[in-house]
Amino acid sequence: MGKQNLTLMTDLYELTMMQGYFRNKDRNETVIFDAFYRNNPMDSGYSICAGLEQVIDYVNNLHFEDDDIAYLRSKGIFDEGFLNYLKNFKFHGDIYAVPEGTPVFPGEPLLTVRAPAIEAQLIETYLLLEINHQSLIATKANRIVRAAQGRAVLEFGSRRAQGADGAVIGARAAYIGGVAGTACTLTDVLYGVPAGGTMAHSWVQMFPTEYDAFKTYCELYPDNATLLVDTYNTLKSGVPNAIRAFKEILLPRGITNFAIRLDSGDISYLSKKARKMLDEAGWALGSDGVRMKDGVPAAFDLYYSASDSVRQAIAMEFANQMGELGIKVSPKGASWDDIYRHQFSDPVVWGWGSNSPIEIYNLNYSTGNGNYACYENEAVDAHLNAALANPVIADSYNEWKLAMWDGENGVAPQGAATWGWFANVDHLYFVADGLKVADQKPHPHGHGWSIVNNVDKWSW
């Protein structure tokens, strides 16, 4: 991430055109280039401009070093007169731009370059690179922030970014778009974007007991203690251990700024139970309708795909219902790349459904590929294994049911409540007159069984 001469961060054809201007045109002829776009990304009503700081830094430092000239000479397409001109190259033009963070619209210039043609041509590639990249991220970030309706949104893009520069600059652009902070430490160092974070399930699993994990975290970070309570059993251990850690570690120090995070399970069922426990532990209903204890709100985030209006509606309605219980749920619209980073630490509005009970296995078996609750129970695993081992599917149904609840163990609401099922979504299709699509099974989540699965039986 050190300082680097980016003059050759340009498409080669910019240089070949520059040589053409040098040899066959008036190199000082003034031109005006406008950088604009035709359509807003993601069908939104506006975009957010970003990237100007990097553009200005690039233009102010434009110069060709000896190694650059030697490289261009090695291409065999540039004459010595042009290369000698580049040795003393400097940008003499003017750049007009809207301030970063400004809402912009299709057809409106974000940036205008007024300069000799030979100079304006060189900077085209880099200007488009920075403005396009950062404005896209700032725009998406702003959409998510607006959807959050005043709740804080953080940026965690480094693990999915296009290289180190993309991670740092991307976090900067997201901050311009309105996020409250970032997970990228270097962006904090370079641009002052506040870096932060709490804990994951792996932290809890590293300690002999859940309470030890909570106690240690509170001792290490007493002023930023948010405890993840659903690693093992939310109601039987997570919430009680969090309450104990708050009482024994933080309250004696006069610290009242702490919170729990509930990420998985039957959120409606668990929230009601947690509400009762919090009531008994002293969490009172605040004047704003949010349950509080020692000044700390009962709140958690709920992630959904920002491109899916159905999941957004479900998340919003769930937040409304939890609000009636005094629990503040903050819907977080995000891309799937962002959501996957939270799948083991935050609740997510997933879309599931299958015509086979195998999905119960995938979502709840201790090593199931959809076991985002990190649930482990030998009795439940035994029921699931027995169900899969039965060669007759009808005879296996009882074991599937016992895996849900056998009177002592299970994943149903009266048990571990590993999942909360919010809604069933019906699919509506328009069929042309005369087309018979044959008998259809239920279409769970679109891909569990699609309408064309039995296309071989369709007829006119």
- Total beta strand runs: 14
Rg, Å, rounded: 29 Å
Give the class from helix and strand content and strand pairing: alpha/beta
Please, what is the average pLDDT? 88
Q: Tell me the series of helices and strands, N- to C-terminal.
A: HEEHHHEEEHEHEHHHEHEHEEEEHEHHHH
Describe the overall structure.
- With 460 residues, the chain is an alpha/beta fold.
- Helices cover 42% and strands 12% of the residues.
- It has 16 helices and 14 strands.
- It has helices at residues 12-24, 52-60, 66-74, 80-87, 117-147, 163-177, 185-191, 201-205, 210-220, 234-250, 267-280, 309-324, 336-340, 358-364, 378-389, 393-404, and strands spanning 30-35, 47-48, 94-97, 103-104, 111-116, 154-155, 181-182, 225-228, 258-261, 284-285, 291-293, 296-297, 299-305, 328-334.
- The strands form six sheets. It has a three-stranded antiparallel sheet, covered by helices on one side. It has a three-stranded antiparallel sheet with strand order 10-11-12, covered by helices on one side.
- Strand 11 (291-293) and strand 12 (296-297) form a beta hairpin.
- The longest helix is centred in the first third of the chain and has 31 residues, at 117-147.
- It starts with 11 loop residues before the first helix and ends in a 56-residue tail after the last helix.
- The model has no long low-confidence stretch (mean pLDDT 88).
